[in-house]
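Think of the structure tokens as a kind of shorthand, similar to the way a musician reads notation: each symbol stands for something richer, in this case the local conformation of the backbone. In the example below we present two proteins back to back. Begin with the first one, reading the sequence and then the tokens, and try to describe in your own words what changes along the chain.
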Amino acid sequence: MRDEKLMLSCRMRVLVTGGSGFVGTEILRRLVADGAEVRCLSRQRRSTVAGVLPVSANLFDSGALERAMRGCDAVIHLVGIISEVGDQTFERIHVEGTRRVLAAARATGVGRVVHMSAMGARENAVAWYHQTKWAAEELVRHSGLTWTILRPSLIYGPGDGVVSLFEAISRFSPVVPVIGSGRNLIQPVAVEDVARTFVQSLTLASVEGQTLEVGGPDRLEFRRLVEDILEGLHRRRCLISLPVGLARLQAMLLEFLYPALLRQAPPLNCDQILMLAEDNVAEASATWREFGFEPIGWKAGLARRLAVKSQS
């Protein structure tokens, strides 16, 4: 394994969009630890990570976005949504938002952009989420900037959506639903490994102009993932298969009720059902050779994730 040389001690200035989220928080911590001068684009006036300068702005205020980027060496663009509410649509956030970030980067002379996409992004994807992620990738590839695109698989770690979801369901219910057969393959990857690839992409010349899949070393069926979570929690529950058609009807109802009544994104949407119906894996070994380290395996990573939860 080659030595990791990030060379951030020279106070590289980095703006992170979406840095207050699950993955973004881990990236911020790593950037600060590696000596970067970090700004976080956020609507909040403070950062949960010490040493990070919060910048109050949004993607659609071009002036504020340029002011936030001015003087930066690189941008890590993480902003994304998993459900649509009002004008917060996949097209607006993933595509138009990325277009605005790239325009600001060109206007302010930012030298490098590291963009977060998603494994499964492609032009002819069945899910609109993946189609808009692909469209954003195309903007990055044709931006004229120095870029790297990373496509993580299912990301887990403290504060994640998947382990936390099944942890919550199994706390109160004797049965745990799995959409469809649960035989679709996934490649879960630890959040700390994802953060490491983003930070290394700031200085690693070999990943310039590359679109890289970031998946963990283990491929497993979704049903197996749920069983592993329950086993790690020491909870015996009955897994039931929820027919895809029924799940889609439920998702359609939630997509109507949550935005209309609660002004919130629904916990389940039709795009997620479509994505769960297909495999979400890729040949990621070349990615890890590029970054020069071995990602943690699913069972070991899950044990560490649950240990952190039990200590909090």
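Once you have a description of the first chain, move to the second and do the same.
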Amino acid sequence: MPEFDYDLITIGAGSGGVRASRVSAQMGARVAVVEESRVGGTCVIRGCVPKKLLVYAGHFGDDMEDAAGYGWTVPEPTFDWPTLIGAKDKEIERLNGIYKRILSENKVDLLEGRGVLIDRHTVAVGDKTYTAANILIATGGWPSMPDVPGIEHVISSNEALDLKQLPNKIVIVGAGYIAVEFAGIFNALGVEVTMVLRADTVLRGFDEDLRVTLAAEMEKRGICLQTESVVRSIEPQGDGYSIRLAGGDIIETDLVMYATGRRPKTDGIGLEEVDVEMTDKGVIVVDEYSRTSVDNIWAVGDVTDRANLTPVAIAEGMALANTLFNDKPTAVDHSNIPTAVFSSPPLGTVGLTEDEARAEYDEVDVYVSRFKPMKFMLSGRDEQTFMKLIVDCQTDRVVGCHMMGLDAPEIAQGLGVALKCGATKAQFDATVGIHPSAAEEFVTMRDKRPPHEGG
């Protein structure tokens, strides 16, 4: 009789947990997944998938405006938010069903309820307990709210995806990619948007040129950036809210959304009781193979705060299955991960920022291009595309690619392959471009930016 009920119990049925569980089961392991909500996790249920559907909804408004320049006569459009949310919900339910079927078809048991560690080999789900040789923590993250008077009145990105109706005005507090993306969504759907951010501009950690250029485009679209500002309190006022900033300024709005960060969802699942090492922010400490301080307990995805992206969690889950059940210890390379921000206009980036490259290499060359997208030549839309290449002078290797503009996320995916292969600027130059396209600009940039120039 087996010593344990399962070879692997995974707590959390998000992208990383499902991938690790499914592949482990395909390798012959006995696997169960514990989930207290819907299967699919942040990305499928309340993150990148529903959010991008809303981004698409906003783009249709731009497209109808632009159509006139191409000879189309478009009646005055109207938009119905409940129709969009109903269609989005239907698609999320479909995906939830697909994820459940994936588990079932691979003979992974789904244990519905909250999983709590009793000891290093035992997980309680409701009033039942289950044992496993290995336990994987893949519980993801959750919006984090600061301690501000009136914070109970705000929504997070979770609730923003399920609003019953659109507000006329919204204040979004935060400057990261979630704040930027939702600012673009609401603005495109006709909402008056104000962003309140501590920093001097959006997207801390991204390349400085991208940050400044995107902020300018957002302001062109009518998004108000209240920079270097801090919220002191939020109070109900009539049918809306009054926000007081440090310095005394007051903003009145219909709705307040906070997007000031996310925290690993590690509270109350027994990690402390079994001595799994965590930081003071609840991040699970793991080695390169995703093993925690307890040698049979593992963690992947946002709970480890390595690179909080769905494809990274999936890669970590796949690597874990190989490590545990395929006799092939596998570590995920977290360098040169392509990243997109589905802002308006969108960003695509891979590799080092200019500041990071200058800190790492003795000398770097920077190539920059700005132009109006061909699509807008006839429509007249005032929007720029921005591209940037960063090259290590000593090796000629391209170490950073950054873009803002139409199709930037799609283009960045291909550039990610190039950087993973160690492509040089000479190889970029030797590549024939596709004309006419925006992407060809990455292989036709020849003029270096003088060292003193920036932004």
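Compare your description with these statements about the second chain. The domain at 151-260 is CATH 3.50.50.60 (FAD/NAD(P)-binding domain).
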